[in-house]
Amino acid sequence: GFETVEHRLPMLSIDNVYDTDAVREFDVRVRRFLQRDEPLDYTVEYKIDGVALSVTYENGHLARAVTRGDGRRGDDITHNARTIGGVPLRLETDSPPAVLEIRGEAFIANSDFAHVRAEQKARNETPFANPRNATAGAIKLLDPKQCAKRRLRFLAHGTGYTEGIAFETHVEFLNLLREMGVPTTPHVKSYRGIDAALEHGQELIENLHSLDFEVDGLVIKVNSFALRDELGATSKSPRWLIAYKWEKYEAVTQIEDITIQVGKTGTLTPVAHLTPVKIAGTTVSRASLHNRDELQRLGVRIGDHVVVEKAGKIIPHVVRVEEDQRTGEETEFAFPERCPECGGDVVQDEGGVYVRCINPNCPAQLRESLRFFASRQAMDIEGLGIKRIEQLIEAGLLTSFADVYRLKDKQEKLLELERMGEKSLENLLAGIEQSRSRPMWRLLTALNIRHVGASNAQVLADRFGTLDEIAAQSEETLAEVDEIGPVIARSVYEFFHSDVGRKMVDELREAGLNFGTPVERREEGPKPLEGKTIVVTGSLTRFTRDEVKEFIHRLGGKASSSVSKKTDYLVAGEKAGSKLEKANELGVAVITEEQLFKMADGEMPAAAGSDTGTPEAGVSEVGASEGESPKGES
Ligand code: ZN
């Protein structure tokens, strides 16, 4: 019952890859094809799991909407497209182009899908298994009134045939579409170089749970239309974009309860307790519901059947509620008005997303911040796990970070505790003792200052040398440090100028912790690595990760976590992976751990291009530092 229409420009398929190394290879291919050494600008966007459409506007009016079909010709579904949210009948512009073909994805939002299923059930039809199938079915309906009931939406992500309009970049194109009243795939920005693009991609992946539509990957595109033209296409797909996809698994289970977890900075996080369900080989029994807004958007009630998704390495999350399975027995969850652990006041974050307990003496915050303080990410105190922390708090022996270092004076009391024999006490105290000399950036991380994770802490430690020096800086000076910026600077400044922060620092100084080495003193001795940027990857035998960084600093070098043309040396240990490949590709000198060590005696290895001591390529990496961004804990 549909007219078949030929696409003026074919709707080619996209090449799929399933890991980031393959995305980097794509970048290498693209630059080789263009014969360009310098990094290119890429955009990264969600790949919506819907039905691809081509929508053509002529002189600003919706002229035709066609399915992808076989890529050469598709079905004319204009009658249905008129009912789709996001496909305006007229473009909002006074000077419309003669022809503008917009490509995008039609889909049913997760929050609408429940209604669609409920209506199907009411009509005694078999409900659709997922929004994608429902969308495909709806698009092919003959009666647009029926199609309208499915509440289809559309988000644009590309262009096809045009007349009377041109764009320089993808970002510009998307901005223009939005100005003309056509919604586009959200959060698309341009990034210089594939590493920056992938970093942003990781952020998009971490925020999958906040979307109201299903996603099955990311699409990475060359931003410049001129370069796209140069790149062209193979017979199957364009050379200027790639889909980075992951396997997705879903299961239906029931929400048995919803509780609130209070985090180390007081954030109240709702958590769904699920009837355990197996998804892709692992049993899932809990899922974060992230925050109050998301709880409301999902509309979950205790007792609801929900679809839980597990995608790649992403933590499982609740996608939607199966509203048609409601019996009326479900109970709504009221988000608490006070901290459920201490009864203290809560406030909404500046960003408006998180709700936070602001009682500085909140026991939950004490427990969680001590857990973090002692963790591998921070002071790495062996023997001080969460069970032990809870026990010590209970016994009144731990009320602050500094109390950890006072435990050695309370051995009699400690021995009275359950599960605390002489041997375990000895181990615990030894673990605590060892942590005293951890590098200062670890202490800074452990202080649990908002927005300051391991990587920002390292940057600050490098720049200022000692904790006291960091504490003495103005907000402006802190903000001027590379990679820090105003949000983190304010947080650091406020911490060191708060009563709580000052007291904490004084007590820890008294406890004899490593507060760092002044920058001036650090610069004593020969500096054979002066001005050199060094990246370390793979596993080393002589140094730990912290030690190798300190070693490089002591010799005047800069330890960086990513390889670029500015890198002078890559120290490659066993199982060096993509960083080694990248270094070889860029012609960065690759050296062994031994060669680095000998640099202390002024023995400098050969310049770039030497292939001495290149270990076998592998997968695991040591050099990367944990990324963090000022977006609150989550
Ligand atoms: Zn509290």
Instruction: Return Rg in Å.
Output: 28 Å
Bound molecules: zinc ion
Strand element count: 24
State the major sheet: 5 strands, mixed
- Low-pLDDT segments, ≥5 res: 608-634
Strand proportion, as a percent range, falls in 15-25%
* Distance N to C terminus: 50 Å
Q: Average pLDDT value? A: 89
Overall geometric form: globular
The secondary-structure class comes to: alpha+beta
The strand line-up of the biggest sheet is: 2-11-10-3-9
Helical element count?
24
Helix content: 25-40%
Topology:
Layout: E1 4-6, E2 16-17, H1 20-34, E3 41-48, E4 51-58, E5 61-67, E6 73-75, H2 78-81, E7 99-108, H3 110-122, H4 131-139, H5 144-149, E8 152-163, H6 170-179, E9 189-192, H7 194-206, E10 215-222, H8 225-231, E11 241-245, E12 248-262, E13 268-279, E14 282-288, H9 292-298, E15 301-302, E16 305-311, E17 317-321, E18 331-332, E19 346-348, E20 355-357, H10 363-374, H11 386-394, H12 401-404, H13 411-415, H14 422-435, H15 440-446, H16 454-464, H17 467-472, H18 475-480, H19 485-496, H20 499-510, H21 519-522, E21 533-537, H22 545-554, E22 558-560, E23 569-572, H23 578-586, E24 589-591, H24 593-598
Parallel strand pairs: 2-11, 21-22, 21-23, 23-24
Antiparallel strand pairs: 1-6, 3-9, 3-10, 4-5, 4-7, 7-8, 10-11, 12-13, 12-16, 13-14, 15-18, 16-17, 19-20
The structure holds zinc ion (ZN).
